[in-house]
């Protein structure tokens, strides 16, 4: 375990949260920020900038630095093929890459994981390194969900349970038992903005503080990649959409700064509830 | 069958298409346009304007005019309770109405249907009166779907099949096997606008003319209300979203002006395919 941990860093606050957790646990780390996505704040750490499509370079650098375990964390949007400059190693993998790009996100990420494992690295989930980033079970802030919200949560979980196997979204909005928005390629923030807009133009009629954002990982999703996440910006979106709160699967959704999240939710009067997988009513 | 057919008219072109079909079939009609939704062009026909929340008035007028069969057709958005002026008959039904408003659209419409049947009217599907408004099976215009599009259609149908029982949307967009947008409260037009936007900002990466809009009624949906519809505006939205075509369930989706639809699709180079329920691959 003296080998430094390789952290492939996408955008957002998560990469440094994970790096700090690993360092606190006494682990050496090397960051591999992805150009175009990762924040320059990674430069305060041992790091090597990398580019999508240059897997050969990354593999050599990871070996040179003695890395064996590797973590993927942060946002990286699926790139347009013509924007990628491939190196030879990657070019040889292209037929495989193309077949992966045809599937949903899950296939792509599972494929990327396989490539690393075939090259001799061990893929580790960010939450294994930094368990503190996982949302715990129960009520998180000062506000508790009301009875009606609990019903909405149950309905949202039923809907996500049937959609997950089809690799569709990790989130939706339920109001009074009615699913009013489903998240797919647009992501949570844009889905919440849509709900706010549909309320403003009268297309959704519901009293203020009604409805819940429900998020959980897709069934069968490889949790070493791309767990759904939550942050102060989510709280803002939920507040603008006039919802009562947020419900996420405990242990299945990550938060970079839990303190900031809870403060934002309390200020906005919004509940955050971590539900456990066992408790699904059907 | 000499009793005039009552047509409760919401917005859009469908009410007159149905009225004309009924008249062509030798049937007398009386239109009951809903104030705030129906177009004033209904005034060229025998008509009585009605208001949401005034079911007692409607019932009396339908009886006075000797109507027995009643058709619902056209768009009526779910109203905000405080915007409705109820009459006594409706007020007495309010506890029932509130329990209906808590459910999804299906519950609401099924409940409305029950009220009419309890009052002695017979609810008829618009497509029973005007079968021509139903999309037929097979290729509709000049453009045929390619192999890749057929795969996307199959994937979209699988996804809609699992979502329908949960009363979620009647439509979605599939690209390369990946569901990139799911329609819920926003409706088809806004979903298509979203896909166009996600393409424009690079969030969805796919070549032009890739992807399919798939629509079908929800499983168990009462087809006497609210069949999904298609029109020239849908073609416009599909074209702006850069999709290859539209696939809808034959006999399960309505079109007010099929000629106009096909001309628009041909001009835009977009396919329209009516699939049959039997052909679902799972």
UniProtKB/TrEMBL annotation, chains A, B:
Gene3D superfamilies: 3.40.140.80, 3.40.50.20. InterPro entries: LpxI, LpxI_C, LpxI_C_sf, LpxI_N. Residues 5-133 form the LpxI N-terminal domain. Residues 136-272 form the LpxI C-terminal domain. It comes from the Bacteria. This is DUF1009 domain-containing protein. It comes from Ancylobacter dichloromethanicus.
């Amino acid at each position: 375990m003296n080998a430094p941990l390789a952290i492939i860093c996408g955008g957002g606050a998560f990469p440094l949260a994970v790096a700090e957790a690993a360092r606190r646990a006494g682990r050496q780390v090397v960051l591999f920020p992805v150009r175009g996505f990762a924040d320059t704040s990674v430069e305060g750490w041992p790091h090597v900038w990398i580019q999508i499509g240059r897997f050969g370079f990354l593999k050599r650098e990871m070996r040179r630095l003695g890395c064996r375990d590797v973590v993927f964390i942060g946002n990286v949007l699926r790139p347009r093929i013509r924007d990628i400059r491939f190196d030879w190693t990657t070019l040889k993998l292209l037929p495989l890459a193309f077949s992966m790009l045809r599937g949903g996100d899950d296939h792509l990420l599972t494929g990327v994981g396989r490539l690393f494992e075939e090259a001799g690295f061990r893929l580790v989930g960010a939450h294994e390194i930094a368990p503190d980033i996982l949302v715990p079970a129960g009520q998180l802030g000062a506000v508790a969900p009301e009875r009606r919200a609990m019903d909405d949560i149950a309905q949202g979980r039923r809907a996500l349970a049937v959609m997950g196997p089809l690799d569709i979204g990790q989130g939706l909005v339920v109001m009074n038992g009615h699913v009013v928005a489903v998240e797919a390629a647009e992501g949570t923030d844009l889905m919440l903005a849509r709900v706010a807009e549909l309320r403003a133009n009268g297309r959704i009629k519901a009293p203020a503080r009604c409805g819940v954002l429900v998020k959980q990982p897709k069934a069968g999703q490889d949790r070493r990649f791309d767990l759904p996440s939550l942050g102060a910006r989510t709280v803002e979106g939920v507040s603008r959409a006039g919802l009562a709160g947020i419900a996420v699967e405990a242990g299945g959704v990550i938060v970079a700064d839990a303190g900031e999240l809870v403060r934002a939710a309390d200020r906005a009067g919004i509940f955050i509830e971590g539900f456990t997988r066992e408790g699904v009513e059907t």
